[in-house]
Amino acid sequence: MTINLRLQQLIDSLDISVLEFARQLGEHRGEKVYHILHGRLKPRYDTLEKILAAYPQVNGDWLLRGEGLMFKALNSPSAAITTEERLRNMEFLLFQLTERVALLQQTNDQLLAEIKGQRE
Question: What is the pLDDT of residues 42-56, one digit of tens each?
Answer without folding.
Answer: 999 999 999 999 999
